[in-house]
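Interim report to the steering committee. The following record documents the input for Serine/threonine protein kinase (355 residues).
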Amino acid sequence: MALQKVGGYEVVRPLGSGGMGTVYFAVSPTADRVALKVIKRELLEAPTMRERFAAEVESLKLVFGSRVARLEDADTTGDPAWLAVEYVPGATLRQHVDARGPLSLSMAAMVGAMLADGLAKVHQVGLLHRDLKPQNIILGPDGPKLIDFGLAVLIDRDHYLTEAGALVGTPAYMSPEQVRGERELTPAVDIYGLAATLVFALTGHGLYPPTNSWNLLLRITEPTDLPDLSGVPDELVQLLGAMLAHDPTARPGLDDVRARLLAVASASSGKTALDLRQEVAALTYNGETELLVPPDLVDPTQDPEDLPVVAEESTAEVPETTPTKVDPERPASPRPDVTWLVDKIRRQYARRSTL
């Protein structure tokens, strides 16, 4: 049965689905647009899972910044459980590269620096993204934004391997420590995911050739099986290689990554960060993808003061008058302009019905 309303939001259409659940485009009673994620019931059936979900949502409330889609509302105890985040118009990075090809060096480096800003805000509140990939980056009207941050912790390794649909693009961007099932993850996991995402943005291919999930995961955990950086410009090979280090402690920190990406973006283009930011938005935002509030969900109430005043017709009899004879030889005298008086009387009549 199709959903019609969830938590007061009117569900308009599905946007996609993944390991956590289904995402819908929905509209609030005041016509705010949101991306509403309905969590799969089976994910929340395990002991303490709802408590973990509630804790993650509380943390998400603290995340801020222009590079992350803000949390709007959530119900962690409902059936179904759900959360609503800001709707960001635009194509995903994956959709953009698939449709228009890889980004230029300067554009990819600037996108990476802007995403590093977003990750810094996520890390500041003690969260990790854990599922950074091109599908989780929206190229909006003001540049890239991170979505789906913080909640990948609800999906364990078994779901990636056994659940239908959960493998779409995700394992290819997982760090070795994630694949090994380590629970004590650090911000380095998102450094790895950012590098894997930038490799795709620059080349259109992943770190390893397409293969079945087991072979892919085995390759990721093999220290001597290095990621494929063919096609990556020379200016970024060293940085991305370091970000993809098998040992998470060997990866550079987020501040270092952002500074080096900005340096490459500026040096390769000769432009300022402001110019590059504007160029990213102009070249990557696809306004045709934007979803609008359906007309049948909009019910504006007209302000009574804006309604036209219609005077009631008088029922009093008007005495007949004798037509005035006009001398054809005598020019008619001009009639005085009394429209101002008529308008004044109408306004007074509209205000005082006893006139």
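Residues 90-294 form a domain with the Transferase(Phosphotransferase); domain 1 fold (CATH 1.10.510.10). The committee is asked to note this result when reviewing the revised timeline.
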